[in-house]
Amino acid sequence: MLVIGTRTIGSNAVMKTQVKISLTILGTIFSLLSSTAYAGQATIPNTFVSGTAAKASEVNGNFNSLKTAVDDNDARISANASGISKNAADIANIPVQKQVVAIDANGNELGLVFGGNNQVISILTPEGYAAEVFARSAFISAGDSLGSSRIAFTDTDCGASGGQRYVGFDGNSPSPQSGQPYFPGTVIAASNDVTQPQPLFYVPKPATFVGNITVQSVYEGPQNGCQSVATVLQDAVEVFPNDPAITGFPNNSIPAPITIDYR
């Protein structure tokens, strides 16, 4: 016997109203089950037609078929859950790939090392800005592979009158008065004087390269100060005073010396 609601259906023919009730309830159940995503599909062996008698054995057969499918899906879900747990454990046990980083004298990590030579280390900060730093003094370089330049100004007093700052090339090889433009996303010093810290500048990213920039002065660091020039930069990019919040490089001295390590 199968009890649905408050009506009882036997193995013999039932009243038409009872069949309609049964079909409505079964249709709702099948609809709810079919709207949920399962790993496998349920097969319903018996189809009921309105106006015909429904047998309890056929109704039970449908439910048994659903139970088999649900049990099968439950087993699959349990197996998947077990597999996911194992995968998570395997992932957690994967050795973390170490990276080559630059470390200051206090043990602070400055950034990733991506190049260098016997004098300077090329460092990329977590903010995504690069600089070449002298390993022994920890002073930021005026650049080499990232560019080679003095800071050029459009005014006559190295920015005191509000002139714009540029690094660029004026075409007077092999000793251009202003050097070569830097890559966007670099931090540079005004000169390569390794005896004292230099004012720092950065090339923003993205940066727009421009030409025909008339400059009237260049800054060569504390040692040489501001120098008058008269030239036109053929290829240049604007620079700005270093902002540690943007570049990740401090304006004050980095504790020296700098070493490299895996972390």
- Basic shape: elongated
Radius of gyration, whole Å: 38 Å
Order of helices and strands, N to C?
A: EEHHEEEEEEEEEHEEEHE
Query: Beta-sheet strand percentage?
Result: 25-35%
- Contiguous uncertain segments of 5+ residues: 1-38, 173-178
Structural overview:
There is one protein chain. With 263 residues, this protein is an alpha+beta fold. The protein has 2 domains: 2-92, no CATH class; 100-262, no CATH class. Helix content is 24%, strand content 26%. The strands form 4 sheets. Strands 6-5-4-3-15 form a 5-stranded antiparallel beta sheet, with no helix packed on it. Strands 12-11-7-8-13 form a 5-stranded antiparallel beta sheet, with no helix packed on it. Strand 4 (109-116) and strand 5 (120-124) form a beta hairpin. The longest helix is centred in the first third of the chain and has 37 residues, at 56-92. Residues 1-38 and 173-178 have low confidence and may be disordered.
In short:
By secondary structure, the protein is α+β, with helices and mostly antiparallel strands. The chain has helices spanning 16-34, 56-92, 221-224, 244-247, and strands at residues 2-4, 7-9, 100-103, 109-116, 120-124, 130-134, 151-153, 165-169, 186-189, 200-203, 213-219, 226-233, 235-238, 240-241, 259-262.
List the defining traits of the structure above.
single chain, 263 residues, alpha+beta, 2 domains, five-stranded antiparallel beta sheet, 4 helices, 24% helix, elongated
How does the SSE layout of this entry go?
Elements lengths: L1 E3 L2 E3 L6 H19 L21 H37 L7 E4 L5 E8 L3 E5 L5 E5 L16 E3 L11 E5 L16 E4 L10 E4 L9 E7 L1 H4 L1 E8 L1 E4 L1 E2 L2 H4 L11 E4 L1
Antiparallel strand pairs: 1-2, 3-4, 3-15, 4-5, 5-6, 7-8, 7-11, 8-13, 9-10, 10-14, 11-12
